[in-house]
Model the fold of this input.
Amino acid sequence: MFNARIIRRTAIAALTGSFMLWAGVAQSTVTLRMGSEEPFSKPPRVAAQYGLDWLAENSERLTNNEVKVRVSANAMLGPEKELLKSVAAGVIDACVASPGNTAALVPEVQLFSASYLFKDFNHVMKVLENEEFFKRLQQIVKDRNLGMQLAGVALTGSRNLYNRVRPVTNLKELEGLKMRVMNSPTESRVWSNLGTLPTTIPAPEIYSALQSGVVDAGESSISAIVASKYYEVAPNISLTHHQFNLMFYFIGDKALEKVPAGSRDALMAAFREAALVQARAAVDLQERSLQFLKERPKVSVQEIDVTPFQERLRPMQDELAASLNVQDLLKMVRDAAGN
Done:
């Protein structure tokens, strides 16, 4: 009798342990690695940090504790071009990337390198929140069979000119500057049309390139100019507002395969919302960053008449949309502006 009881208890304990082990496996959280070359800091100085921190903090809650997104910023997992390749190959799970670097894989996003596409922050937010616009971009990426999906479209702020040579208030003063541009044919064309000498340099090398004179100028969001301290070596800031720069959130197909099927839609929705969190944060961050620059004694911030810039560059919008076969995207953008 004594031995029978021991055997029975041992069997029950074994079954209970097996059940608990099975339950632990079933309920384990999938951790996804997401890369960014954006410079994170405390407090945040770039809009992407607000979106990516939000995603890292809320991904488990929104997926019923089945998925956690872990973000590595400051180019710890590589620059954007390498991050995109790594996501497609399944080396890492997700990343964020600018239109310039994304264009090498998805040429259609060159449309967003066209200058003066958006009027102001209200206009660009209206476009980003448009579900039809987002789904059209998702389909474009999906049709490329890249091994990754578009999960969100964000904003870093309006892009503006900075240079180390002289204050620039008109097109003539821009001529001849050695201009750092993103890795996009459209970017090179835009700045050639404006009279500069474009050259492509990876973002992590911009500061040293300006410092050494390899380039004279660059363009970026105001928050990035502050975060990366470009104003230290290029103190002449011209508020051209030539682009409202987008940023794309990508997740790999192999990453999605690791996620329980019942949580995939929730995860994609979390990515989309994180991108919009970033976009909304960009508006406030730009104002604070601009005030910071205006308070620097050695920095010159120039408000300029952008009309001549618009007149020279706006015709590229229709031509570019037609060459990329995305006239419908251009129409959505223009319709959102009411013209």
